[in-house]
Design goal:
This protein has 151 residues and is an alpha+beta fold. It is built from 5 helices and 6 strands. It has a domain at 2-16 and 61-149: Hotdog Thioesterase (Thiol Ester Dehydrase, Chain A). Strands 1, 2, 3, 4, 5 and 6 form a 6-stranded antiparallel beta sheet that branches.
Amino acid sequence: MKDRIGETLGTSRWFDVEQSLISQFSASTLDDDPMHLDVEWAKANTPFGGTVAAGFWTTSMLITMSHDIGFIDAFGREAEPYYALNYGFNHMRLITPVPVGRRIRGHMRLRDFQDRGEGKFLFVIDVEVEIEGEAKPALVAEWLAMVVRHG
């Protein structure tokens, strides 16, 4: 994997930002902010023209995007049993709010790879979440994944 540092891991497919998903996320996190839930309120009281996704919803989509890209499969789960754990972030910024009704996708690149011994490998992944039709991304991050061999 050291030879792959700097390589693009891939780009996910587009994901629809649907009000039902944002509402479910808000319910599960006990976040009742009308900016995420009340379309009429958001139209009248925000510059976004309607509801927007919670930044943590956008962040949580990184898991789905990494699966879509096939991140862990590229590491070789077929040859040896591995699983990946979200290990956090060195850096993350939520740049542009994501309006409900738009689409997002993720771009990922391998920044670094470290063998931590005992079957543990730290991946540092540069991530950008693009909003379709927007010049600025929704999110940029340096994301950490700990891949662990098991079995």
